[in-house]
């Protein structure tokens, strides 16, 4: 399908491992299964190999590669941090860019802080998935942990609708 889209003019693709209705479990690796993030790397690499070199592939699923507190035990912690892992997959040609979806909610200045060597100041996404609940409830979306506006919005939403029984639409 991506080759057909590329032939019709698509110049970039974002790897997401499916859609929210069918594959939420794989799309959004949670704290308990952070290793699912490696699937994102694998599939982005498959996409990159199938497409023309000039077609851009943006990888996703990078939230588990947060700082020094991630739970990815397959490699040394310093090699599984966001900057190291992101740099490696780009240098290895597995993708052209990394997506920072939920991380951009947690700390929109992540790229600037990484570039300036201020990684210890980054507020990393902890994969609480509360931003997802706001999205599913069609509320303004942002980081519930680090941004008081969204914390309040989340509390209001829960008070009005109750807790979601499943994290999907």
Key terms:
mainly alpha, 2 domains, 8 helices, 40% helix
Structural account:
The chain has 169 residues and is mainly alpha-helical. It folds into two domains: 124 residues, no CATH class; 42 residues, no CATH class. Helices cover 40% and strands 5% of the residues. The chain has eight helices and three strands, in the order H-E-H-H-E-H-E-H-H-H-H. A three-stranded parallel beta sheet has the order 1-2-3, covered by helices on one side. Helix 4 links the parallel strand 2 and strand 3. The radius of gyration is 17 Å and the shape is globular. The two termini are 25 Å apart.
CA distance, first residue to last residue: 25 Å
Order of helices and strands: HEHHEHEHHHH
**Poorly predicted parts:** none
Share of helix, binned: 25-40%
Query: How would you describe the shape?
Result: globular
The tally of helices reads 8
Q: Percent of residues in beta strands? A: 5-15%
Q: Supply Rg.
A: 17 Å
């Amino acid at each position: 399908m991506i080759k057909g889209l590329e032939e019709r003019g698509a110049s970039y693709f974002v790897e997401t491992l499916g859609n929210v209705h069918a594959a939420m479990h794989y799309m959004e690796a949670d704290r308990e299964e952070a290793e699912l993030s490696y699937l994102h790397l694998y599939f982005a690499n498959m996409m990159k190999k199938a497409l023309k070199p000039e077609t851009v592939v943006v990888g996703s699923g990078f939230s588990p590669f947060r700082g020094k507190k991630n739970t990815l035990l397959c490699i040394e912690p310093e090699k599984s941090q966001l900057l190291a892992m992101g740099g490696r997959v780009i240098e290895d040609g597995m993708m052209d860019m990394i997506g920072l979806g939920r991380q951009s909610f947690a700390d929109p200045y992540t790229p600037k802080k990484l570039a300036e060597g201020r990684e210890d100041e980054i507020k990393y996404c902890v994969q609480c998935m509360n931003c997802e609940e706001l999205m599913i409830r069609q509320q303004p979306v942002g980081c519930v942990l680090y941004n008081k506006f969204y914390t309040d919005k989340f509390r209001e939403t829960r008070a009005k609708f109750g807790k979601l029984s499943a994290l999907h639409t």
